[in-house]
Amino acid sequence: MDKKLMVRAAAAQIAPDLTSREATMARVLETIREAASKGADLIVFPETFVPWYPYFSFVLPPVLSGSEHLRLYEEAVTVPSPATEAVAAAARENGIVVALGINERDRGSLYNAQLVFDADGTLLLKRRKITPTFHERMIWGQGDGAGLTVVDSRVGRIGALACWEHYNPLARYALMVRHEEIHVAQFPGSMVGPIFAEQMEVTIRHHALESGCFVVNATGWLTDAQIASITPDEKLQRALRGGCMTAIISPEGKHLAPPITEGEGILIADLDMSLIVKRKRMMDSVGHYARPELLSLLHDDRPARPMVTAHPSFETDPARNSTDGHDNASSDRETDQRIAVLRSQAG
Question: Is the dihedral of CA 109, 112, 117, 121 positive or negative?
Fold first, then answer.
């Protein structure tokens, strides 16, 4: 595909609706249209924005969070579903790449998932956060290495990580080595206080420098009324303020527009894709600056499977039934020996 030399990126810092997936989805679709009307080629939404980030799990003890957890199950997104089809349609109709964070429901489990839709509506990426952080482990299951990849889109090669996955240097390297050009970062926002925003800024600027890519980061926002609805305890409410750093960073580690740290808004900046080569000419972490004979990454990129079925039937063994003229007797003897050992171990 023809690469764009200039890409207009948008990062949305908006509030979800804490009562309804459909209401939050309405906000998503409205924001996609608004960003597209301003010429955006790409828009990034916050972490698990649909239906909402599980803020309750940060301030409520597990014994009191059951009803909210179940409600999150009821409002979560399956893939595919009418919700994902609506986002795909909006991306296609507005000619914009969309990166959306969702709570994904897969039967009896929830996952922190990141979706990337191309500008023609194609779902290019569905990945799951590999390790939920702290309180999140009570809410979500773990992702796998299959999602640590980079996809080609109309705006370039996109990789994505959620929140503190950025503190796993090997996860970031798995994207860097695949030559991501635009990195999608998503954090919940409205948590922990100013220190969270400060740490976030350091993290995304460092990744931009190290990867030699653009970083588009989106964080969520909670209103005072929403915070009060999560907990009436004023001391705990303080834990649900601050921590917003919606920002767009260049490969040189610079903000391309003043970040949004308070309130709602859509941050927009133009990405000059030639800056990637300008940065990597000096320092390419996975190219001329790498030392793979000394340091390298082993990445298991297979999807996790809870069960693998095996059928050691000679009649259905393709190797045994091959007609390519090769002698399979040695292979058969090895199979017989393995079966004998398994039977012996089983008693």
Answer: positive
47 has catalytic annotation: yes
| Candidate list 75, 129, 210, 280, residue with the active-site label | 129
- Residue range 213-238, pLDDT digits in tens: 999 999 999 999 999 999 999 999 99
pLDDT tens string 12-61: 999 999 999 999 999 999 999 999 999 999 999 999 999 999 999 999 99
Task: Measure the CA–CA gap between 31 and 47, rounded to whole angstroms.
Answer: 16
* Backbone φ and ψ of 224, nearest 5°: -60, -40
Give the orientation angle of helix 194-211 with respect to helix 169-176, to 10 degrees: 40
Smallest Cα–Cα separation from 119: which of 46, 41, 180? 41
Candidate list 163, 165, 181, 210, residue with the active-site label: 163
Determine whether 129 is an active site residue. Answer: yes
The shares of helix, strand and coil residues in the chain, as percent rounded to the nearest 5, are 35, 20, 40
Single-letter code of the amino acid located at 33? R
Q: Check residue 280 and report its DSSP letter.
A: H
* 280 among known catalytic residues: no
